[in-house]
Amino acid sequence: MEEKCFLCGKTARVESTTCQSNAEGTHKVVCERCGTYHITESASEAVQDDPELEKKRWIFAGYTREHSEFVRPVRLDTPSLHQIPFSSEVPRDVSEKMDKVLSYIARKSEFAGHAVCLVFDNDYPVAFARDRRELDYFARCLCGMSILQMDITNNNFAKFTLTPGGWQRYEILKKSRLLSKQAFVAMASGEKMKDVFQNGISKAIVEAGYEPLLIEIEEHNERICDRIIAEIRRSKFVVADVTCHRPNVYFEAGFAMGLNLEVFFTCREDAFDQRHFDTSQYKHTLWKTPEDLYTSLLWRIKARNL
Predict the structure, then answer these.
(1) 168-190 pLDDT tens trace
(2) Could you tell me which of 26, 57, 103, 159 has the fewest CB atoms within 10 Å of its CB?
(3) Which helix (H) or strand (E) holds 135?
(4) Rounded to an integer, what distance in angstroms lies between the CA atom of residue 285 and that of residue 297?
């Protein structure tokens, strides 16, 4: 059924599911501009009625387009609409937006020298741009920097190829942002949890092909949060064990989720009902021994790569 896209207003194909017992109805949207995404009924209303969210539609359009083409279609609900603008995937300045254009053309290139078409009216979300004029500006800047070469152009589209310098820049971007092997571990410190880390969490992370990082929180270290935030930003995902119900673990997990990093929650089985915050909407790996934790967590991490 043709309706308007909830994010950009362009005519799109919208399929709606009815609300069941405890589940909220959702819409599947297929839009030339924003890609394919799923959005709950409450989120579709919020993005139109909430002035703060309405002003950020261009961010949501960029986010859904990128995931639709290169990851998998996302599901937007009201909490995620508030989190996405703080995601590490959202560019913060002009240079990062130009890197988005560069990366898009590189990933669309079937071979070196392949000319990739940008349709300015439809493709401006690939740069998290506000409109077609901003995308055109970024593309022309990249040509001026000898990152792109423009082959064909008219009022609404142009074809671009990456120069050798553009491919070099793309390889640098991949290594710095996409190939992180670090897995941040948020958990209580101390002797009683050392075995849980060494023979459970760390062992599973290493066997899955990643590098665990646990920052021991020391008393009177007022700058520890700065390092934690920096290391979470550098990480591929986070493992958060809430067994001892430490506030810092919830903080670190929440910060990671705000960056759209995957968080694997774990908890000792007999401590699950005493957790400080209701995180029941997220899957938890429950364990009795470090060996249990190792086996279950390993398969969960491996499953993310399938």
Answers:
(1) 999 888 766 555 778 999 999 88
(2) 159
(3) helix 132-144
(4) 7
Strand ordering across the sheet containing 182-186: 211-214, 182-186, 237-241, 262-268, 284-287
pLDDT digits (tens, 9 = 90+) for 238-281: 999 999 988 889 999 998 988 878 899 999 999 988 776 667 77
In this prediction the pTM is 0.61
Q: Where in the chain is the domain with CATH 1.10.10.10?
A: 94-177
Asked whether the beta carbons of 265 and 285 are under 8 A apart, the reply is yes
**Gap between the Cα atoms of 65 and 125, Å rounded:** 7
Pick the closest to residue 99 from 159, 172, 164 (CA basis): 172
**86: how many CB neighbours lie within 10 A of its CB?**
12
- Which CATH number applies to 94-177: 1.20.140.10, 1.10.10.10, 3.40.50.720, 3.40.109.10? 1.10.10.10
Written as six digits, the tokens of 195 are: 């075995």
Q: Rounded to an integer, what distance in angstroms lies between the CA atom of residue 7 and that of residue 36?
A: 11
Contact between 186 and 253 (Cβ < 8 Å): yes
Contact 202, 185 (CB under 8 A): yes
Q: What secondary structure, in 3-state letters, does 51-109 show?
A: HHHHCCHHHHHHHHHHHHHHCCCCEECHHHHHHHHHCCCCCCCHHHHHHHHHHHHHHHC
Q: Which two tokens stand for residue 266?
A: 């774990």
**Under a CB-based contact definition with an 8 Å cutoff, are residues 210 and 264 in contact?**
no
Which part of the chain is CATH 3.40.50.450? 180-303
CATH class of 180-303: alpha beta
